[in-house]
Amino acid sequence: MIDLGLTKLAVIGAVALVVIGPEKLPKVARMAGTLYGRAQRYLHEVKSEVSREIELEELRNIHKEAQAAAQGFKSSVDGFKTDVEGTVSSHMDEVESAWRGDTPATEPAPALEPLTHDDIERKAREFRRKKLVRTSSVPAWYKNRQGARQHVLSGAARVRKFRPGVKSGASFF
């Protein structure tokens, strides 16, 4: 970054006054300010476009993950149906064999694998990062200008604020 102090700006201004002249200096300064403003707006547009593209890519990834999860769920549901039918028929066989006096050997049910601490931490980190990206992409001044709520009012306070004809110290009588 260019380090411009007060003395360097004064020297640049003096040289510009001598080279350009006092008649054209305000016009040139106005034009330089306009160009600087255009450059800032262009950079802001590029940054917002990049952030939109990043959000779109995240949404695409989430969509792909959701589709994969839906396919996995569908296959597990189909498998579950056959498992339920098989389980019901095996239990019916066990009940019938117990009724007759036979005792078949049963195998234990498989245990579900719990999430590890590292998996939970990774998911929490990803959630916090994505939330920071979502919330920091819109500046506070823009939220204020658009009328985003900053303070929550209770129902009674809203009624009092927006009731027509009511003044703060006035009495009904």
Automatic annotation (TrEMBL):
Task: Share an example GO biological-process annotation for this protein.
Answer: protein transport by the Tat complex
Cell compartments where the protein resides: Cell membrane; Membrane
Q: How does it sit in the membrane?
A: Single-pass membrane protein
Any one Gene Ontology MF annotation carried by this entry is: protein transmembrane transporter activity
Keywords associated with the record? Cell inner membrane, Cell membrane, Membrane, Protein transport, Translocation, Transmembrane, Transmembrane helix, Transport
Record keyword Nucleotide-binding present? no
Task: Respond yes or no to whether keyword Transport is given for this record.
Answer: yes
Please indicate which superkingdom the organism of origin belongs to: Bacteria
Q: Write out the GO cellular component annotations.
A: TAT protein transport complex
Question: Tell me, what does this protein do in biology?
Answer: Part of the twin-arginine translocation (Tat) system that transports large folded proteins containing a characteristic twin-arginine motif in their signal peptide across membranes. Together with TatC, TatB is part of a receptor directly interacting with Tat signal peptides. TatB may form an oligomeric binding site that transiently accommodates folded Tat precursor proteins before their translocation.
Q: How does it assemble?
A: The Tat system comprises two distinct complexes: a TatABC complex, containing multiple copies of TatA, TatB and TatC subunits, and a separate TatA complex, containing only TatA subunits. Substrates initially bind to the TatABC complex, which probably triggers association of the separate TatA complex to form the active translocon.
The text of the family note is:
Belongs to the TatB family.
Q: Which PANTHER family match?
A: SEC-INDEPENDENT PROTEIN TRANSLOCASE PROTEIN TATA, CHLOROPLASTIC
Q: What is this protein identified as? A: Sec-independent protein translocase protein TatB
**Organism (species):** Massilia forsythiae
